[in-house]
Amino acid sequence: MTYLRIEHLTCGYGTRPVLADFSLDLDQGDYLAVVGPNGSGKSTLVRAIARTLAPTAGRILLNDTDIARMPARERAAVIAVVAQDEPWDFDFTVAEMVLLGRLPHLQRFRSETVRDHSVVRQAMAQTHTLHLAERPVTGLSGGERQRVRVARALAQEPSLLILDEPTAHLDIAHQVELLDLTRRLNREQGLTILAVLHDLNLAAQYAHRLLMLKDGRRFAEGRPGDTVTEESVRAVYGSRVQVMLHPEEQSPHVILLSGDGQG
Amino acid sequence: MRAHRGRVVLVIAALVLLATLLLAAGIGAVRIPVGEGLRILLSHLPGAHLARTWPEPHETILWQIRLPRVVLGALVGMALSVAGGAYQGLFKNPLADPYVLGVSGGAAVGGALAIAFLDRMHLKTLGPVPLLAFAGGLLAVTVVYRLASVGRRVTVVALLLAGVAVGSLMISLVSLILVITRPLERDIIIFWLMGGLSGANWTKVGWMLPYLAAGLAALLCYGRELNALLMGEETAAHLGVDVERLKRMILIVGSLLTAGAVAFSGAIGFVGLIVPHMVRLLVGPDHRLMLPVSALVGATVLVAADTAARSAFGATEVPVGLVMALAGGPFFLWLLRLKLKAAAGA
Amino acid sequence: MIGIRKVRAMALALVLTVSVLAGCTGSATQTTPTPASTPAPTAKVTTYPVTLKDDAGNSVTIAQEPKHIVSLAPSNTELLFALGKGPLLVGRTDFCDYPADVKNVPSVGSLFPPSYEKIVAAKPDLILMMGGSADVKKKLADEYKLPILTLEPKNFDELYNDIKLLGAAVNAQPQADKIVADMQAAVKEITDKTAKATAKPAAFYVASDDPIFTAGSGTFIDALITMAGGTNVGGDVKGWAQYNLEQLVAKNPAILIADNATSVDQLKAKKGWDGLQAIKTGKVYGISDWNLMTRPGPRLTQGLKWLAETIHPELFSK
What pLDDT digit, counting tens, does each position of B2-44 carry? Predict the structure, then answer.
């Protein structure tokens, strides 16, 4: 069943569209990774679905409802976004920060209920941030911050989780830890995930499907094994690579070859 | 844990304010014995019938001169602090306050226009002054906001420059009004602008209340959204906040609060700057706690400053705006240095 | 930027000082003229209650002979002392500096604002004010129900009237009549001499030189210069007003009068002014106390005498 449908979307900044006449279907429970070089339209796609950027043409349907017609609050109760970066200049505690994720579910004059707090606790437990609860967010490390932001997104109890380059600025252990979490959420809770990843190998390893963008258009889409090929990587990134198989996951693994190597 | 500490702070702040109010009511150019003062106050409680054992002027002094002044000072301090706190959230910058942003200047232009042309002499009715002050303040802060937020984030420099530029323009407009208005109204505008609570009476307290209540209530209702906005507009939008509407609301409510304050006390600076900043250090950035505590602390600070202004030099008054500027100016500079250092380090 | 600010601040300060402190308000020239048309009391003793029409156009009823008076203007304070009623004063402003006895009267602060607490505590049965300060007046009258008599003479005739008005208010009519008669005699003695002057030298009163402020038509200084046999250069502006340097140079005054003795040297050395005839001939003078020319009261005749002797030394040296 199609859960998220993007129809003929044209979207961008100023007069130059970054995405042009772009369409996409996403099923419930899917895990889609969006890859492509810088400027290929990955983040623009995220902004369009999050409605922080209004399209100039086309529409996005969520369960057959145009998201442009949904109130911001209702939309946020279904779609949670972990964006690339956000300023944390004010010293909220981690618990307060995660509790902000309940905002779309809370009525204006009501205070948080027991259930709200238990959702928050669960989100923090899943992201291993419970022990940070009373720490100010301004003092967290990069990896801790990212986990707290995922926790806040989970507190929204979304059915669609969008992550925009969640592993950027993380060391490899934290990268794997974070993506393992997304896989668990996808498998165990049926959370639909759309993740923009710049690392082709991680994308191929964790996602069910890959969408490869080039210049705002779909270059390839499908199962990782069908999408990540020596030809497609060369065409999209202009890099000479060799594709091997991941020993455990059986997913394609890209080996970078030197630009002026032996060929 | 912090929420619990917050409630404790809230109660303490309320008690300190109450003590300050009582103390301020006890201090003045004319000495009124404590017991006598308390009896006078009690006699004004509904249903209380106390024999008048005190000299009549003392009742006038306490009930008609000192008390409305103390109460108005508290309301003005609340309004300015809450407005400052809200603006700082909007601009994500602790240097924002109604005075720095030029809102007070805009309100001054509106108020001066009202005195000069609508409400001749500021005497008959009180309505037009705060209303036009509101319009002027809203206009000024909208221009400052538009100027400062070209680009993705509001920088300290852009904010201060825009505020200074708009503020200067507003001062020029006030000067122009002073030149073209008639001498009687001119005198009144000058006294009004010098800032001060000496004109306080219960009528003004009554006029000030709705401005404060409306503003404070609106901001408290949107406490969670204001918190989300501190994480940036994009994050706030992801969390389901209608960011454009929220920003408009803050601009309007901030101007409403500032207008009320400026209309009844002239332009008093730095309260809205110092108080929210201090309170945030104390109770954290959660608006649902920070704003009410700021209101209480702001009232305390301004009442204390005004008590100093009216009693430090005997019968001769110093404008309370001057006292606040003397205390707040150095603080502002210190904060500015801190921010610029942080910006240079980043 | 700083220059503009300074100018603006000075202008504001000057508007304030001049209109509030000196007792000759700028508004005097523009508010509706209401000469005190007090029915001349026939008896020389005031019978209370008495209703008087003051310079603000208000009918003020004084129930009993005032015993506690607060004066919120230096000119009124001075007048009250001249009438011999100084001992009735229970409150005065910080600016009341004459006669020396006022130091014994407690101050109720400045006029912006006065200490309402002190005023109410003094239990005054009469408050003397000038024009302006409408917000202060409104508070005292409406909120604290205190009787206010506004004295705001704009010329000598109104001053004579106001002296008699105050005399009637505080039951000092014979004293008032005597002061007026003395003043009239002193004025006549001087104007009789200056009337004989063949030339009327152009004199310019420098209230401030940066920005240039002067006393225009409708001020006592304007009247005094004319009575002293001179021509007030600033007479083409109304009230206390800023004056244009180019216009000043064009009018080329023969005499400059500084607002106090200390700024005479400053004016003589001032750049851009060295072409003025008054500077070239050294005719720059400062009066020992500018209140002699600005504060409506008996001492104005001293100011007139000094001015006449300064403008026409030839008429007085003999």
Answer: 567 778 999 999 999 999 999 999 888 888 888 888 888 888 8
Strands C231-232 and C284-286: unpaired
pLDDT category of residue C42 using cuts at 50, 70 and 90:
low
pLDDT confidence of residue B58? 87
CB contact under 8 A, A52 and B2: no
DSSP letter assigned to residue A101 = G
**Amino acid (1-letter code) at residue B208:** M
Quote the percentage of chain A above a pLDDT of 90: 64
Q: Between residues 135 and 174 of chain A, which touch chain B (CB distance below 8 Å)?
A: 156
Test A83 with B224 for CB contact under 8 angstroms: no
What phi and psi values does residue C88 have, to the nearest 5 degrees?
Answer: -80, -15
B-chain residues near A92 (CB < 8 A): 227, 230, 284-286
Question: A76 vs B227: CB contact, 8 Å cut-off?
Answer: no
Distance CA B106, CA B294 (A): 23
Q: What is the CA radius of gyration of chain A?
A: 19
In angstroms, the CA C270 to CA B237 distance is 65
Predicted local confidence at residue B46, as pLDDT: 82
Which residue of A lies nearest to B217 if distances are taken between CA atoms? A109
Shortest Cα distance, chain B CAs vs residue C136, angstroms: 8
B123 shares contact with chain C (CB less than 8 Å): yes
* pLDDT confidence tier of residue A154, bands split at 50, 70 and 90: very high
pLDDT tens sequence across A177-212: 999 999 999 999 999 999 999 899 999 999 999 999
Q: Is B328 helix (H, G, I), strand (E, B) or coil?
A: helix
Question: Nearest CA to A43 among A228, A168, A223, A206?
Answer: A168
Q: A141: closest CA among A152, A132, A150?
A: A132
Question: Could you write out the DSSP letters of every residue in B125-186?
Answer: -SSHHHHHHHHHHHHHHHHHHHHHTSSSS--HHHHHHHHHHHHHHHHHHHHHHHHHS-HHHH
**B102 in C contact zone (CB under 8 Å):** no
Residue C11: which pLDDT band, with cuts at 50, 70 and 90? Answer: very low
CA nearest to B191 within chain C: C112
Q: Residue A94: its chain B contacts at CB < 8 A? A: none
Question: Which of B5, B238, B287, B288 is most worth mutating to test chain A (most A CB atoms within 10 A of its CB)?
Answer: B238
Residue with tokens 């630009």: A259
The chains in contact with chain A, meaning 3 or more Cβ pairs closer than 8 Å, are: B
**Which chains form contacts with chain C, at 3 or more CB pairs under 8 Å?**
B
With residue A196 as reference, give the H or E element that holds it.
Answer: strand A192-196
- pTM for the model: 0.81
Of C19, C94, C143, the CB nearest to B187: C19
Residue B233 is predicted with a pLDDT of 87
* Contact between C233 and C315 (Cβ < 8 Å): no
What is the number of other CB atoms lying within 10 angstroms of the CB of residue C178? 15
Specify the length of chain B in residues: 346
Interchain contact A50–B (C-beta under 8 A): yes
Output the DSSP codes for A107-162.
-TTPPP-HHHHHHHHHHHHHTT-GGGTTSBGGG--HHHHHHHHHHHHHHT--SEEE
* Contact assessment for residue A197 and residue A165, using Cβ atoms and an 8 Å cutoff: yes
pLDDT < 70 regions, chain B: 1-3, 119-126, 151-154, 195, 343, 345-346
- Give the side-chain half-sphere CA count within 13 A for B94: 23
- Distance between CA A132 and CA A94 in Å, rounded? 6
To the nearest whole Å, the CA of B84 is away from the closest chain A CA by: 16
- The torsion angles phi and psi of A213, rounded to 5 degrees, stand at -100, 145
Given a cut of 80, whether residue C7 has pLDDT beyond it is no
